[in-house]
Amino acid sequence: MFYGPDQARIHHDAFGSLAREAAGALVGLLHAAGLTRGTVVDLGCGSGILAAAMCDAGYDVTGVDISPAMVELARATAPRATFRVGSLLDAPLPRCVAVTAIGEALNYATDERAGREAVRSLAARVYDALEPGGVFLFDVATPGRHGPDRRRAVFHRHDTWCLGMHAEESEDGTTLDRRITIFTRADGGTYRRTDEHHVLRLYEPDPLAALLRDAGFDVDVRDRYVDDPAPTTPPGGWHVFVARKPT
Question: Could you give the CA distance from residue 246 to residue 132 in angstroms, rounded to a whole number?
Fold first, then answer.
């Protein structure tokens, strides 16, 4: 299972700050480029938090996510946007002012094609779809995502759910495994257990920036979306890419 109903709802309720921060950053980038209207394509749209913010800012939004549960939430969160279930690698890219992939969407190996060459192909398609001055905004996990030990175990407790996560990076630093167990309170006070296993392809930032430049982008690599990020923003092993199509 990948972001089933329980995990999707928890992510929406408790871990949505990154999407909100990315939306704020994107509005600023687009306004600075004089692009105050147009279409935003949200790849790996999740529960629609970024889409709702971009609709509120006056943009049209189309989103895609491989999780049906996430798409169901997105349609409720951002009813003015359009969403579909599918791989972000196959998403149609209409003429647009921005393409986003927030929350390590490009890392997830839910599609067997996932990897740097898939990102290269996608970057070329994004470049062709963007208006001059348009932005390809995304973040990725890099080696050391969970610290120098390259592993981490955390436990989150809420009134109606508990979530445990154990992450371990491969010895060669190319993949990351996350095993997640969720207990969600059901009717009658019992708890429902859900297990998920997420595999991520990790990318070194310099080669990723190089392939974006090869596609024609001007590239800025950052360590956050906003100056004062939420505590859930990764402290390291993670980068934000701002790729602009020249005017």
Answer: 6
Q: Who contacts 113 (Cβ-Cβ below 8 Å, separation ≥6)?
A: 89
Contact assessment for residue 59 and residue 33, using Cβ atoms and an 8 Å cutoff: no
- pTM, to two decimals: 0.97
187 burial level (CB within 10 Å; 0-12, 13-18, 19+)? exposed
pLDDT attached to residue 188: 85
Tens of pLDDT, residue by residue over 118-170, are: 999 999 999 999 999 999 999 999 999 999 999 999 999 999 999 999 999 99
Could you give all domains of the chain from N- to C-terminal order, each with its CATH number? 5-143+204-244 (3.40.50.150), 151-200 (2.20.25.110)
Mark 50-80 as b/e (b = at least 16 C-beta within 10 Å): bbbbbbebebbbbbbbbbebbbbbbbebbee
Q: Which phi and psi angles does 48 have, rounded to 5°?
A: 90, 15
